[in-house]
Amino acid sequence: xxxxxxxVLIVGSGAAGIxxxxxxxxxxxxxxxVDKEPHLGGTTAISGGWLWVPGNRQGLSEGDTREEAxxxxxxxxxxxxxxxxxxxxxxxxxxxxEFFEDNTRVEFHYPxxxxxxxxxxxxxxxxxxxxxxxxxxxxxxxxHRLRVQPYLHTYTVFGYxxxxxxxxxxxxxxxxxxxxxxxxxxxxxxxxxxRLLLRRALTRTNGNALMTRLIATAGDLNIPMWTRTRVTEVxxxxxxxxxxxxxxxxRSTTVRARCGVVIAAGGFSGSEVLRSQHFGHDRRGDDHxxxxxxxxxxxxxxxxxxxxxxxxxxxxxxxxxxxTVWRNLRGQQRVFPHLRAxxxxxxxxxxxxGHRFAxxxxxxxxxxxxxxxxxxxxxxTTAWIIADRKAMRRYGIxxxxxxxxxxxxxxxxxxxxxxxxxxxxxxxxxVPGDNLERTLAEFNxxxxxxxxxxxHRGSNWFHHFKGDVEHEPNPxxxxxxxxxxxxxxxxxxxxxxxxxxxxxxxxxxxxxxGESVPGLYAVGTAAVSVFGGGYPGYxxxxxxxxxxxxxxxxxxxxxxxxxxxxxxxx
Length: 570
What we know:
Layout: E1 3-11, H1 15-26, E2 31-34, E3 51-52, H2 57-61, H3 66-77, H4 83-103, E4 108-109, E5 130-133, E6 136-137, H5 166-172, H6 178-198, E7 203-204, H7 206-220, E8 225-226, E9 229-236, E10 242-249, E11 253-263, H8 272-278, H9 298-304, E12 310-311, E13 318-320, E14 323-327, E15 333-337, E16 347-350, H10 364-374, E17 382-388, H11 389-394, H12 408-412, E18 417-419, H13 422-429, H14 433-449, H15 461-466, E19 485-491, E20 494-497, E21 500-501, E22 508-510, E23 516-522, H16 542-569
Parallel strand pairs: 1-2, 1-11, 2-8, 11-23
Antiparallel strand pairs: 3-5, 4-5, 6-7, 9-10, 10-11, 12-21, 13-20, 14-15, 16-17, 17-19, 18-19, 22-23
Helix pairs in contact: 1-7, 1-16, 3-4, 4-16, 13-14
């Protein structure tokens, strides 16, 4: 087998990996990025593309303080709070953001409104901590234009991915506003023409825009990025320092990496073995479906041979996100993550008994926590989204699009259940009819008054942000009282793991005894989350991924020099 040399080997091409690669390259290092997937960009490329990064310039200008951010994170993390890791993260944010703004093609967008997910928690703010990126023109990728991971198809509107913010708000009004309809029509026609002529649309939004900009910068810097290439073994020298890796697949070779190896290959929610060990609801390995890309636990299995262990101290082992799973007419499995859908007026969630069990305007993560709690002891973690004709026509239900699109396809593939009465719907989905009728009666009485006496849905800025701000008197509430009635089954999924490889303050992998593995790093969801199992706001995975990726890229050469100096003086 041939051998090649570089300074840094990056395993994974999402936000964490490419960030580390860009910073290392700017330090003058020779960098190689490898990814086992056929495309670059990982899960970041199908995400919303937000970064939760307190201490950014917008937040500081609005009066956000370090103390408030620490108070908020500590409240969410509880006993899992790691003060040192949080402090390191907050210290790095301004410097990391400055690097990406000044040295890459990334252009951040600072939205006027992006509320923290738990607005009733001390230290929460309605803006200034979450930012996203401006849309990108894929032509900046040059020869890499078709190499970026495509969108999650089920999350697009006929191939176009609306930007989170005014863009998606306009799409939601397309069936009741001529101006919005014309706007959507122009976006879709442009998308279809570009796909017809160029195979992929040129306009990239959300997480795809972020990865387009990062990967374009990597291309500008001539960083090699190999896909369909798996790392099968991490190599060490006689002193126990990581020196490279063995690759297989499209590029089978041995890599000698002078400064070390950075694991940025995602988490382990795609591994039945690791899920059964760390996800309390999935001990059999068959009660969870992840929409993530490439998260099969590769990082752990590579580090395990060198003493690497999973840090399971976060009180929630993953960033939860309820999903619906079905098969299309070709028999292919499809997944839709419900990240916003049932915070809208006229939709609620009920359990197997036909009862509401949580505030549907919670974040997907916090709703997932309640869903897990409600299903504890049951064989499956499951619930149902319920809506009526009004909500279906106005908003749709997740993947099922609203009027004027017909519902026959969604019913035919088993995504959507329809019935002429509440009792009939209950029979069709297998919940007690009397309970479901009572639940709707109680909810409808509250919704008519614009208050949710049971769960206080629609009571803060974040709830409203998930709802329809033009709907009155409450952006999150509307009665469910007009036949036909609809239901969509949901089960548990995730956006990435929070439990991950144990790392020290330099992001070096640690063993069970707390010793570091010199030259082996882990960032992104491959490493344990800094937030201790809480989900603070938009971009809780991508923000730390880029910040700690920046740290590794900045410091890896200095760590190498430090090891060399120590060995010479020993």
